[in-house]
Amino acid sequence: QAGELPLDQYPLLAQQLLAALRVIDAESAAQAWLAADPANPHAHLNAGLLALLRSHEAGLALVEQAAALDAGLVPLARSLSAAVARAQLESDPAYQQLLLGREAANLGYPLIGELLCAQAVQINPAYAEAWALLGELQQRNGRGGLDALEQALALDPESTLVRSLL
Questions:
Q1: Residue 165 binned pLDDT confidence (cut-offs 50, 70, 90)
Q2: Residue 143 gets which letter from DSSP?
Q3: In angstroms, rounded to a whole number, what is the distance separating the alpha carbons of residues 145 and 124?
Q4: 134 with 117: CB under 8 angstroms?
Q5: 25-35 confidence digits (pLDDT tens)
Q6: CA Rg, the chain, in Å?
Q7: Region 122-146 average pLDDT
Q8: What whole-number distance in Å separates Cα of residue 109 and Cα of residue 126?
Q9: CA 11 vs CA 2, 89, 122, 131, 165: distances in Å
Q10: What secondary structure does DSSP assign to 90-114, as a single string?
């Protein structure tokens, strides 16, 4: 908010804000980084991953721009593109978020995955699998997760996924 930062400070700021779950501020920092360094593929990637939380298409577009700037990001962009395409085939918005959350976590972005799963349980609080994956990702991210896993078990005590994650 105070103005431009040295370029190497933007990713640190975005990461710290995201770790503190200040998602809107993290996205603002990522957008500021992108504006300050538009040729940096990691600025595009960071902004794209955060944008996924509000718009699958906008997030994917930024990730694809990152891949256009750095061929090493092409596999990530392809995987994410396939996940977005699969999600768009589903009519259930909670399941869409769960699919993308699982993919983000599998691609090495467990905090983005956790936030997408949190959106899934906000959309459908009775979705046991979303609660289970949320709990597993919270645990992976160092934020407990047992409450979410217990909520999943309460919703569907017979689910093999829920029981295995618990």
A1: confident
A2: S
A3: 18
A4: yes
A5: 999 999 999 99
A6: 16
A7: 95
A8: 25
A9: 16, 33, 28, 30, 32
A10: -S-HHHHHHHHHHHHHHTT-HHHHH
